[in-house]
Design brief:
Helix 7 packs across helix 10. The longest helix has 18 residues. By secondary structure, this protein is an alpha/beta fold. The radius of gyration is 24 Å and the shape is globular. About 30% of the residues lie in helices and about 15% in strands. The two termini are about 40 Å apart. The protein has an 8-stranded parallel barrel, surrounded by 5 helices.
């Protein structure tokens, strides 16, 4: 990994402090996440109905960002701004999106933003940087610019004059969403993508299958969704009236067709977000095995559970048919998702069935394995060989270290940092997602919160997250790709609850994985967040006050 993958030293922000006024005039600057370098200049830029958006004529990325910027401005202000080809130079009363004279040292996701009384210019080498520059520019305007419809009243659509240079600290910045325990429809997932992209996350970790539900159409195995996508009721001790995912026949659940997946992938791509699918194996497979029980050790049909826990729904590691099944599933998944990484889970695998199963014991003997832990390693390595053969890389939870790590695997460390440290020291890339700082299903206060899984994760703890352990040497620390936040949905029966648990904690995490660690300042973040929450409010996000 080169320094372009993780920036260990960034320029400290020179001028930050912000609380936006109601009309945007004389506003100080309040940006989330905090940019690398910002200098405030005299004056302000006024947006009006005659403002132009000028984009590089031969750049699909510039055109894409220009179009999204125009749509956002029209929705909030009613101004219909024309997106036209430009020459990359500054222009009067215009917003310019260009790669001309972009600073290559800022990398593929970095950008420069110059706002003057005459106009604004976003310079970046690629589409992601242009998109993030747009997000920063929007935050300079009054919060109503993020509104879902035309703002009421007389709002001065002004942005303070600034010069900003910015780039992310880490190349991996993700938010996860579990849609297995509770299903969230396509439009809700799009909104989730919109919000994470707005906060400069670049990866959506899409947890599509688990014990309680299978959510992706697989053409070769239709019973996965016919049976595995539905259950009798909401479960988890929740009020059935709080759930929103009921089918016409009253069953609880749902799934995404392959056309839905293609639509979501394209939607995310336009926002410079990669969707990484997670297909759990060898454990957390009750929903799949309820539909295709012959791939379990027992070979008997069962029901997908309606409550949380760790279950014996585990694929039979001694059954070649189970591997054929999973390879066929993964083939369709890989065809749908262009992501370099395919998440295969690998966590919380009970070994009881394997220890009793004649086929699994025969596999252990044939392969010269010591025990069921090494059988799990055999399972992961066999799947990895298939996935690598399709040009992709597997990533798994830190349990995949048990029994020996697959040669090319990336580790997502959730049981603290130790798994990630071990993987990095062994030369493997790592994404840090420790439950101590990154599990957004944990409660946000010790009392007064909705029903939840337990645990306690206040906003300040998320803000203090540091993905690179101090114990790692510099040559090993380069393997820390970044970090992410996880939303396990056992107690999220509707999308409003997802938003409540995600924001503003995701704002704090966004800064932890984007901004320079040396610029971290909790009190400063709290001040900027007060203004930022007004942006979320304008979007009708059901954030936790």
């Amino acid at each position: 990994m080169t320094m372009s993958r993780r920036f260990s030293a960034l320029i400290v922000v020179s001028c930050i402090a912000w609380g936006a006024s109601a009309d945007g005039a004389n506003a100080t600057i309040s940006l989330v996440p905090k940019p690398m370098q910002i200098e405030q200049k005299p004056g302000e830029f006024s947006l009006d109905a005659n403002t132009a958006i000028l984009v590089d004529k031969d750049s699909p990325d510039a055109a894409n960002v220009g179009r999204q910027l125009a749509e956002r401005i029209e929705r909030a202000t009613g101004y219909v701004l024309k997106v036209s080809p430009g020459d990359g130079g500054d222009a009067r009363n215009a917003i310019v999106v260009t790669s001309k004279d972009a600073d290559a040292k800022l990398g593929a996701e970095g950008y420069r933003l110059d706002v003057t009384p005459e106009g604004a210019t976003i310079r970046a080498t690629g589409g992601a940087g242009m998109f993030y520059g747009m997000q920063t520019l929007l935050q300079l305007f009054p919060p109503a610019i993020f509104g879902k419809s035309k703002a009421e009243g007389n709002i001065a659509w002004t942005a303070p004059a600034v010069r900003i240079a910015d780039r992310p600290r880490f190349v991996w910045r993700d938010l996860h969403l579990d849609v297995s325990r509770h299903f969230f429809n396509k439009e809700e997932v799009k909104n989730y993508i919109d919000l994470l992209a707005q906060h400069k996350f670049n990866t959506f970790h899409f947890h599509l299958v688990d014990d309680q539900g299978w959510r992706i159409e697989i053409k070769r195995y239709p019973k996965l969704t016919e049976m595995g996508a539905w259950r009798k009721d909401i479960g988890f001790g929740l009020n059935p009236k709080d759930g929103t995912a009921y089918g016409p026949d009253g069953r609880y659940g749902g799934f995404y067709t392959q056309d839905d997946i293609r639509e979501l992938v394209a939607y995310a791509k336009a926002r410079y977000v990669t969707i990484m699918p997670e297909i759990e194996m060898p454990g957390h497979a009750c929903a799949a095995l309820a539909a295709y029980p012959s791939y379990s050790c027992e070979g008997r049909p069962g029901d997908a559970p309606r409550d949380g826990g760790i279950f014996n729904g585990v694929y039979c590691a001694g059954n070649d048919g189970a591997f054929e099944f999973l390879e066929n599933v993964l083939s369709e998944v890989i065809d749908l998702f262009p992501s370099k990484y395919i998440h295969i889970g690998g966590d919380e695998v009970p070994k009881d069935n394997w220890n009793k199963c004649p086929k699994c014991q025969a596999r252990i003997k044939k392969e010269g394995l010591a025990n069921a832990h090494e059988l799990q390693s055999y399972f992961i390595k066999r799947i990895e060989k298939f996935v690598n053969g399709r040009g992709r890389t597997i990533i798994g939870w830190d349990e995949i270290l048990e029994g020996g790590l697959a040669p090319n695997a990336v580790v997502m460390s959730w049981r603290g940092m130790n798994g990630g440290i071990a993987a990095a020291n062994a030369g493997h890339d790592v994404v840090m997602t420790p439950a101590s700082h990154c599990y957004f299903d944990y409660l946000q206060a010790k009392t007064g919160e909705p029903k939840g899984i337990g645990g306690f994760l206040p906003l300040e703890t998320v803000y203090q997250f540091e993905p690179v352990p101090a114990s790692l040497s510099a040559d090993k620390a380069k393997h820390i790709l970044g970090g992410g936040g996880n939303l396990w949905s056992e107690y999220f029966p509707n999308y409003a609850q997802v938003q409540y648990m995600t924001y503003p904690r995701a704002c704090a995490l966004a800064e932890a994985v984007w901004s320079d660690a040396k610029s971290k300042d909790w009190k400063d973040f709290q001040t900027r967040l007060e203004s930022h929450l007004q942006r979320l409010k304008a979007q009708d996000v059901k954030y936790r006050p």
